[in-house]
Amino acid sequence: MSSAELELLFAMPHVSIRTEEANPTIGYLCLISQSDAGNLLAWVPRKTIPRVELDAYAEVVSRTRKARKNWGQPLADIIRDGQKYTLSGLTESISAPLDDIDRLGIGRDLTLNKGEEVCLVRLTVNLTFGGAQLPDLWFENDDFGRPPSLEDVEEDLRGWFEAIGKNLAKAPTDGRPNADASHMFQYRLSDKFELPADATLLGKPQTRKWPEGWPAVPEESAVHRFGSYGFNVVTQIVGQPMANKIEDVGWNMLERFSKVTNIAKNTTVQVLEHPLARPILPYIPQNVRSLFLSSAEAEALLAEYEPAGQYVARFAADLQSRLGSHPTPPPQLKKDKTRDFEVLSVGRRHHRTGEALSAEQWISWYDHTGKLTLSEREIRAIVFSGGVENDVRVDVWKYLLKVYPYDSTDAERTLIMEKRNTEYEDMKAQWQSILLDVAQSEAAALKAGLTLEQRESQAGDEKEDADVVTKIKERKYRVEKDVVRTDRTIPFFANLAGEEEISPVSPSDMQEVISANRNLEMLRNILVTYTMYNFELGYVQGMNDLLAPILVVMQNENEAFWCLVQFMEVVQSNFFRDQSGMRKQLRRLELLIKLMDPYLYAHMEITDSINLFCCFRWLLIYFKREFEFADIMRLWEVMWACPLTKEFHLFVAFAILNQHRQELMAKTAFDETLKYINDLSGHIHLESTLERAEILFKVFGERIGEAAREKLGVDLAVDAGAEDDDALFRVVREGYLSVPPGGRRSPSPARGRTSTASSAAANGTVECSEEELWELIELLQKR
């Protein structure tokens, strides 16, 4: 076939054929347009795809994911000009023209994964001739180690077919609606507006006492005993909509509850008090919630940060994949001290000087045009070594956050800020004008005796299909609700009247409180204006925490806004509503623990803590609540400046865990771990944490270098990079700061270091796979 004959429309990765159940062949499920045969549903093994076409598949996978919010639109609105990808051929692929497909079956079924029984989504394709059927296709774990849900697969396929003018309709089988004897939902394809007589349009399934399509459960199972009684109890407490949500999350979550507690005795209490029930907490009335919850820590975090609830909801949903699995008993871990910092730090040194960059030093580095005479790399090394004195932060931070280019002159910076000030004032005037018009219209309506629609949303809610004006109103309301409780114990944001205690502010009083405090007003204005600047992202709880220290340093609304914009360029994925950014960071921290401390990793797996929900707030708002306010400014400038890696915050997180390693190893449950971590807030020593984080990065470089050579056959040249970094810091110390050689060296030289991979294997602990090692290698990337 010529390349013009095949166009890749949609693609889904991590789809396998399991001719050998324990050894699946991974590939892509694709919808392909063929010029002489119409549209094809095809499975293409990844190993047969030409290297030059792998990027095309990756682009189409990305486009497919982005199109999810637009399913139902025609293909022309999803695939724009210049976004067409043609293929040279389909080697060793399995495909069928859509016109030859009689039925599709989608359901969950049991298979093997690494010797354990797991539940994955399976797709069957029955053809119209002679009872022919394509090999079963299985939807494997994604890049984060999580399998897609049945609903996700169902929705994606429906979206694919709708885009090309096809309906995916449910077809009853053997008198049982929508599911066959093997618990597969059956569907038929038809042209739009031509529905088969025995089919119904695919929509959200009705709530049932036992979800269709799930594998049969033995009568002795706790879930079977739980039965419809337990589901009815939950329904009565949380209401039918929430009960539907629980069913969507997956009944295996309830199976997990039954193993922890005796559900038959007191179903309601014990379902709601287990940590894995946290996804449903935001939907339960407060008066009911308080009767059943046992973990104030999890409750507080979910109430404060909406993304935390979303993250745990996804974590609970992932438990679907474990239905029917029979995991091996947890290993009996040996007491291990080889990963204690005192052992890891032997022969290694950090570059912390304890000497903050002073105003005198900073000013001396400008030439007559106001241009810095040091390179960006040198300046960042200096800041990383000791931080910045408070009276010069207002200038240095603008360079660290790239508001100012490092090679700019004084005149160029003046022009930059003049232009940005105008842009900011225009955006602020825009939302203020819109809301003024709305207020005047509402006042006129009230005067005419009309009743205004009451606010129904809660803080954290935003309807995606709302109009622009409604979104701006809701965002301002949610911003103000957070602003009145942001760092009110800090003098900059405290009550101007000098009141020591900050009492809760009712919604009706928010405007008055903010108007009485110029600094709160600036905080509010910047956050609402940012929602205009980044309208798609909008406002998410936690952004106020990121802005507060910046505003304290800048004390200027316009300058603080542009610093926030640049900071958000780095961390905005933390606030994505699909939680992809937070999942990626927590996944990398999990792998970092797995490589550096397999003993701690194994223990956290046993205690159901390896989802790292205990570290969620750390990464969401860059440790804002974990250190004293003054320390946060030092921590942030060090992380922004770090010349070693752009992911230094993950090593700060690991340093805190490492520092409290023995205490964490003594915890026996998720709630114990969460409470211990939460209680560290405000009691973490910054300087020792930064020293530890840098040394642990050096250990990581050595370990990942060893593992890459042994397992991947790749030389990362980490030793050369480390020597280059040491040379940089040596020049910085001797040439610019005139301080004694920094970095205290441990008393004895390194000795007895062994390969991470081999020692882990010898001790029977967890090891990183090749894919995980490649993911960890990304932590070596510098800014």
Question: Can you tell me about this structure?
Answer:
The chain is α+β, with helices and mostly antiparallel strands. Helix 13 runs antiparallel to helix 24, helix 18 packs across helix 20 and helix 28 packs across helix 31. Mean pLDDT is 75; it is low at 174-182, 197-295, 315-331, 456-460 and 738-765.
Structural descriptors:
783 residues, alpha+beta, 10-stranded antiparallel β-sheet
Helices and strands in order:
Blueprint: E1 6-17, E2 25-34, E3 38-45, H1 51-66, H2 75-78, E4 94-97, E5 101-113, E6 116-127, E7 137-139, H3 150-163, E8 166-170, E9 185-191, E10 200-201, H4 222-238, H5 240-249, H6 252-260, H7 267-273, H8 286-292, H9 296-304, H10 306-317, H11 341-344, H12 359-364, H13 376-386, H14 390-400, H15 410-447, H16 468-483, H17 510-515, H18 518-533, H19 543-554, H20 557-571, H21 580-596, H22 598-606, H23 616-620, H24 629-641, H25 648-659, H26 661-665, H27 670-679, H28 686-712, H29 718-737, H30 756-762, H31 770-777
Antiparallel strand pairs: 1-2, 1-7, 2-3, 3-4, 5-6, 5-9, 6-7, 8-9, 8-10
Helix pairs in contact: 4-5, 9-10, 13-24, 13-29, 15-18, 15-20, 16-18, 18-19, 18-20, 19-20, 21-22, 21-25, 25-28, 28-31
Summarize this entry quickly.
The chain is α+β, with helices and mostly antiparallel strands and 783 residues long.
- Widest sheet: strand order? 4-3-2-1-7-6-5-9-8-10
**Which overall shape is indicated by the principal axes computed on the Cα atoms?**
globular
Radius of gyration over alpha carbons?
29 Å
**What proportion strand?**
5-15%
Determine the oligomeric state from the structure: single chain
Low-confidence stretches at least 5 residues in length (pLDDT < 50)?
Answer: 174-182, 197-295, 315-331, 456-460, 738-765
How is the biggest beta sheet arranged? 10 strands, antiparallel
The helix/strand class is alpha+beta
- Look at the structure and give the mean pLDDT: 75
Number of helices: 31
Total beta strands: 10
